[in-house]
Design goal:
Order of helices and strands: HEHEEHHEEEHEHEHEHEH
Largest sheet: 5 strands, mixed
Distance between the termini: 35 Å
Radius of gyration: 20 Å
CATH architecture of the largest domain: 2-Layer Sandwich
Number of strands: 10
Number of domains: 2
Shape: globular
CATH class of the largest domain: Alpha Beta
Low-confidence stretches: 164-173
Strand content: 15-25%
Mean pLDDT: 85
Strand order of the largest sheet: 1-2-3-5-4
CATH topology of the largest domain: Heat Shock Protein 90
Length: about 300
């Protein structure tokens, strides 16, 4: 079982890497919260994705508030996706910004995969869709409160655990999944990239980072030492992971490739992953699953 306060407090160091200096960050933790059944790394991703989304809604700076609490939902509660609510106690994580707000005609689409209001090349529209998928997986709900020109609050509500049973995180594989190789990590979602970087770094890997394919090629050209693995998202702005892998392997034929994705791509993308004969890991994944996939790709 998880303590939401511990999760929120734990992401604070990562926020310093993701949030600009013109955005002030405030964290408020309620006392005596119930425990929840969830995966810690995926809940971290939810909080970080919401924080990054809030950051992007404040291009001129502002205030970001992350606060925890507990509430009781009744059957007539209205959720953002109009889903039927299971009455009971819920732990809440609210992420608020003082940004641009969400226009009414846009609000009903914000959790749809690939929907984005950002300029072309600035995002894939998967951040909030990932949040939605994770929250629903653990039996939770989302509420959105937004005023154009004043800001937005997105509240995650997860059911309080009613027994000692827990959804345990996958056990770490018996085999050794640590390593000393160099991994080029390419992911346009800042929150997921930060989590993956931390997981790999703690296991001994040297991690080079890039937000998209073009940046990754620049990083690779500037890196004089070997790169052993390309760990890349499939869908990214400017250059997708398939084209990146193709171009990188021309310059570095020995580099192994591990693709990651959370959504079904078009037929060409699916065929490309299969033809590349590379490794693949489906999002969301646990730290143990990521480390195992990386080790297997390196040893293939």
């Amino acid at each position: 079982m998880l303590d939401c306060n511990a999760i929120v407090a734990g992401v604070k160091p990562m926020l310093s890497r993701l949030i600009r200096e013109d955005v002030t960050v405030e964290i408020r933790l309620a006392e005596h919260l119930g425990w929840i059944l969830a995966d810690s790394s995926q809940l971290e991703q939810v909080v970080l994705n919401l924080a990054v989304n809030a950051r992007d809604a404040m291009p001129r700076g502002g205030h970001l508030l992350i606060e925890t609490g507990e509430t009781t939902l009744t059957a007539d509660a209205v959720m953002e996706d109009r889903s039927i609510v299971m009455p009971g106690r819920y732990v809440s994580i609210g992420v608020s910004d003082t940004g641009t707000g969400i226009a009414p005609e846009v609000r009903s689409h914000i959790f749809e995969p690939f929907f984005t209001t950002k300029p072309v090349g600035s995002g894939t529209g998967l951040g909030l869709a990932t949040v939605y998928g994770i929250v629903k997986h653990f039996g939770g709900y989302l509420q959105v409160d937004s005023v154009v020109g004043r800001g937005t609050t997105i509240c995650v509500m997860l059911p309080v655990a009613t027994s000692a049973l827990s959804i345990a995180e996958p056990a770490r594989p018996a085999r050794n999944t640590a390593g000393t190789e160099t991994v080029l990590l390419v992911e346009d979602m800042d929150a997921l990239r930060e989590i993956a970087r931390r997981v790999l770094g703690r296991s001994g890997y040297t991690v080079l980072e890039a937000r998209n394919g073009r940046d990754a090629l620049d990083v690779a050209r500037a890196h004089g030492a070997p790169i052993h693995l390309l760990l890349t998202d499939v869908v990214m702005p400017e250059m997708n992971g398939l084209r990146l892998a193709e171009q990188l392997q021309r310059a570095r034929p020995d580099v192994a490739v591990l693709f990651m994705s959370g959504y079904a791509e078009d037929d060409d993308a699916r065929r490309g992953v299969e033809e590349a004969r590379a490794g693949f890991i489906h999002k969301p994944f646990s730290p143990a699953q990521l480390l195992l996939a990386v080790r297997e790709a390196l040893e293939a």
